[in-house]
Inverse folding.
């Protein structure tokens, strides 16, 4: 036992000296802003070569430049994660440049809120397409680079993003809650099927993280999917600096009495990808400030 602990300690010491993800390659979707951007920056800071994607090519290019200016290594593959050709494009680009894949962070997504009885089929289908079908297809495309021989194995993981909506449901989010619940089942299945290849698969379920998806819908943030504009945000939401908001019901339900920021959200992804979580697989890590306990 002492010998094993010394071996692990030595490995982590070496890793810390070079960065937690030194020499590893990570694909991160939805990296043009918000949590995805923070994840791309922190993974690169910890030594990973990051392959970033977003539907907004301009924002994506800015993040790639930000990483390179800070001394990191990155390439970007712009596009819609739900497109039929997307998985092959990003996997081929990654392998052509770096020769391998260590991590996939399926972060891309958005909300399309409607009450259950007014939700049309297309509003249901697009959320399922982006939050469940797209991660599944990307992971499946990358399978040959994860299901590898023992002598080729390195630290490898899949991280899928869920939500407290997927754990507990949420008013106005039948589509999103169902999709985020499905992601947890997908992840546990990957953990069981690919565990024998040394691959870890985990989910991170976010609570209130301050992004455009949790900002006031009245701010007018939108995105375009399949030619349709989708309004983003929460009706009447207050900014995190608003004094009234800090004393409101939303924060009273959070033991830490605040929402999280995107860097805090990304740090949980880093933990799950890193050797610090080398024996963590099939887990859903709740990043909620204590809400829901």
């Amino acid at each position: 036992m002492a010998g094993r602990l010394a071996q692990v300690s030595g490995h982590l010491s070496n890793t810390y000296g070079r960065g937690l993800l030194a020499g590893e390659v990570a694909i991160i979707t939805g990296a043009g802003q918000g949590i995805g951007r923070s994840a791309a920056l922190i993974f690169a800071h910890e030594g990973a070569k990051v392959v970033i994607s977003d539907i907004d090519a301009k924002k994506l290019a800015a993040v790639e430049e930000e990483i390179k200016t800070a001394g990191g290594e990155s390439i970007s593959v712009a596009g819609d994660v739900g497109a039929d050709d997307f998985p092959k494009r990003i996997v081929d680009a990654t392998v052509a440049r770096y020769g391998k894949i260590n991590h996939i962070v399926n972060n891309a997504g958005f909300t399309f809120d409607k009450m259950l009885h007014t939700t049309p089929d297309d509003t249901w289908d697009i959320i399922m397409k982006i939050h469940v079908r797209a991660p599944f297809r990307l992971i499946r495309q990358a399978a040959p680079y994860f299901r590898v021989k023992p002598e080729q194995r390195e630290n490898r993981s899949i991280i899928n993003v869920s939500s407290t909506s997927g754990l507990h449901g949420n008013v106005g989010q039948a589509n999103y809650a169902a999709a985020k619940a499905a992601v947890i089942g997908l992840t546990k299945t990957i953990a069981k099927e690919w565990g024998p290849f040394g691959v870890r698969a985990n989910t991170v379920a976010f609570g209130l993280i301050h992004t455009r998806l949790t900002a006031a819908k009245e701010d007018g943030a939108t995105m375009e999917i399949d030619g349709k504009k989708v309004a983003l945000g929460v009706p009447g939401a207050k900014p995190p600096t608003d004094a009234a908001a800090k004393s409101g019901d939303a924060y009273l339900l959070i033991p830490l009495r605040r929402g999280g920021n995107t860097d805090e959200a990304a740090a949980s992804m880093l933990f799950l990808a890193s050797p610090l979580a080398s024996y963590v697989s099939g887990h859903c890590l709740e990043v909620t400030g204590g809400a829901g306990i």
Q: What stands out?
A: The CA atoms of residues 115 and 172 lie 4 Å apart.
